Amino acid sequence: MGGVGEPDWGPEQRGAPLPTFRWEQIRRHNLPGDKWLVIERRVYDISRWAQRHPGGSRLIGHHGAEDATDAFHAFHQDLSFVRKFLQPLLIGELAPEEPSQDGPQNTQLIEDFRALRQAVEDMKLFEAKPTFFALLLGHILAMEVLAWLMIYMLGPGWHHAKPNIFHKDPDVTVAPVFLLGESSVEYGKKKRRYLPYNHQHLYFFLIGPPLLTLVNFEVENLAYMLVCMQWMDLLWAASFYARFLLSYIPFYGIPGALLLFMNHIPREIGHEKHRDWASSQLAATCNVEPSLFIDWFSGHLNFQIEHHLFPTMPRHNYRRVAPLVKALCAKHGLNYEVKPFLTALVDIIRSLKKSGNVWLEAYLHQ
């Protein structure tokens, strides 16, 4: 199987007709070292190539034996370029009588979301504005200077980051420190009790922010950069950590600096349900009510729904696409949830408390 600069054309390029496959055949190929996926009704064998996937083998592997068309469009901006890498992996196509998606998915919703994405592309909402990001960089530098001036003048005695699928989303793989969603029942049934999980909503305040961010998410990102030799990304990340620690350790010490990191616990957490792209993103997150302050404070990531649906969209366009997403949800009866900022924070604690109680009940009674 060819890599970059190693043409190894599939059957179509060699003049042979493409074999056809049924979903029941494709479903068998979702094992380590044996992965197929479907994009635009074409079947690709990514078993050996997945390790060279620029986004990491796990990300592409999460869509094994599934229709990955919408994920393919969501994460790749230059589709013509990416298709050159897909071509040698092509092994066939779906049989004409087979549906484009496996399982009981809402075909009309999928078609409407793809039409929405095309409309968004026609509106050029995936094009970044250099002026916006230049101002953003200037704003960041200005805020750092201001922070140093405030600390200098006032002193350090005051205080003032496939979604939600277990084993696929690093943000929710936080056991055995915290139990979320269905993992609570699993730990309870297996009589696992490493910590008092029925009190996890309380000890979250002590160890949650630094542990969730540094141990789970940041270290995983850094490991990926090192393994894949992404030196430029690694250099930028190192510069951030150096500036962050240089700014705060002199005043708060190492423990205080770590507590300044933030993270979030999303809404619905559980095992793979094989939803379509739009439904899976909407079920996994919600927005925080927009305002000039919240938009600035969160860097426009209060539009979590739009961010999940269109991960390559520049953040300054989230407000513009939000009404279109809202209309799609209204048409299909999907919940487009928007919460006040404080309510969203309180819901994190409620989620932890609920999962802790589920664990306790399963631990004691099963």
Automatic annotation (TrEMBL):
Alphabetically ordered keywords of this record: Fatty acid biosynthesis, Fatty acid metabolism, Lipid biosynthesis, Lipid metabolism
Pathway: Lipid metabolism; polyunsaturated fatty acid biosynthesis
One GO term (biological process): unsaturated fatty acid biosynthetic process
Superkingdom of source: Eukaryota
Example GO molecular function: oxidoreductase activity, acting on paired donors, with oxidation of a pair of donors resulting in the reduction of molecular oxygen to two molecules of water
Annotated compartments: Endoplasmic reticulum membrane
Transmembrane segments: none
Membrane topology: Multi-pass membrane protein
Name listed for the protein in its UniProt record: Cytochrome b5 heme-binding domain-containing protein
